[in-house]
Design brief:
Elements: E1 2-9, E2 13-20, H1 24-32, E3 37-44, H2 60-72, H3 77-99
Helix pairs in contact: 2-3
Amino acid sequence: MNYSLKVFREASGVSALDIAAATAEDAIRQPESQGYRVIESRQVRSHPFSFLSRTQRFNVPLFSQELLTLLDAGLNIVEGLTPFRASSAMTTSAVSFRRS
């Protein structure tokens, strides 16, 4: 499970941490072992599309236009969707990288 923690340490002040842990106690124990004091903790509910932030939306018109261009160029539907799968994996990696 994922937990969002608000923590405090003299050197750095108040910070926010996102922790993956089996239990809430484990989530609290991890930053405490690094010298933080936990001010607040809450479990973050995740859903299948949690890698997408609220500000990042799927651009349907752009997707439709690009897919139509590929289909008009003679690709079949599977070949037309393959580039989107690759760019989606790169976008997901970039979002994951920014959050860590």
